[in-house]
Amino acid sequence: MSILKGILHHWNKTNSAYDTIHPETEVAQVTDWNNGIVNTLASTALGTLVNTLTSDSLLATMIQKVLTATGVKYSMGQNGYICFGSLFGGLIIQWGNTSLSNSDGGWVYFPLTFPNAAYILECSHYNSLSSAINVYLETSFLDKGMAYVRSDKSSTQVHFLAVGH
Question: Which candidate in 37, 90, 120, 156 could, as Cys together with 165 as Cys, close a disulfide (CB 3.0–4.6 Å)?
Answer without folding.
Answer: 90
